[in-house]
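EI: anyone free to look at a 369-residue chain?
SC: sure, send it
EI:
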Amino acid sequence: MDELVMSGWSVASPFGLGVDPFAAGIGAGRRPVSTPVSGPFDEACVIPGFDIPAVLGPKGTRAMDRATGIAVAGVGMLLEQYGAGLTDRPESVGLVLGTGSGSVQSIIDFTRESMTGDKPYHVDPARFPNTVMNRAAGQSAIWHGLKGPNATVAGGAATGLLALNYATRLLRRGRCETILCGAVEEFSEHRGRLAWQAGHRDEPLGEGCAIFLMETGRSAARAGRTPLATVLGSRFAAFTELEEAGPCLEGCVTGLLERLWLDPGDVRLVAASGTRGELGEQEELGISESVGTGAARLRCRDVLGDMAAASAAFQLAAVLAANGLEGRGAGAPEGRPGDIALVTTMDRDGVTGCTVLRLEAGARAERAA
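SC: here you go
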């Protein structure tokens, strides 16, 4: 069976638009300058200067919510760099996009408008699509002319890995030839208030999207695209009690490595979700019990803040960025072609899992360029 590879990626992050600012920021290991915001949080890690009409143009963006604008921009950046030939057969290109609840700001604003207006139906109909969870995925496909399978996945902090797993199944079953997958999260005042009321107050909230181009190795070779990483597999599990979370993750990692005929010592790079508190301690327990403590660690959350539904997608992006980070900051974890990378996730609602990647030479060559 032909291996599935990541042959392209794009990032919109608190470091700016593009993979270069992101790779430099991850390499430096410093949190970007936070922006003062309204609401219970004093600041947030937002995409600097991101304005939807300025980035996408005024046409069709008047009523576009921020999450959709970020996703459309992220997909556009990827297609601009890697999309040669993709749009020739748009029906063969799919899109799987992870999200939390869609645009929380739009949902709450639209609901409030319907309750405070003279009539419940005195609302702006142009803003109703923003209240639907699959708005960002659908609009991204329409905007860029992608006509293959289109899906939205929501799974808390695990969303990015769940979206990647969904995308690999579509490819394996021949539903499309290439697929874009990733996750998006917006910052808004209402998202901040919900997070605050839920007790998540230890760090600023972040926003952004990470999108990956997935295809078979043969497809990448035909198109002249160089593989950046090979997706070897994923595994997920559910837990009901907090003390079950660590052993649950350990079982996922151990079982996946055994299925891939890999030893724990083969893992050279680990990107954990970095969740705070007891849940984070359980994640660290699961990692140490399954692969030990010898692998280099990428700590995305320390740098990017709480990315919520986009967390795992940014962990994947950090793995790609690490392949070729030499000289980009003292102590920055560095990956090498052939290294095995482990990405783990743990969500407070009871989902945990992992994905294993093998770094390829293409990622290093791209960063050097």
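EI: The chain has 13 helices and 13 strands.
SC: 👍
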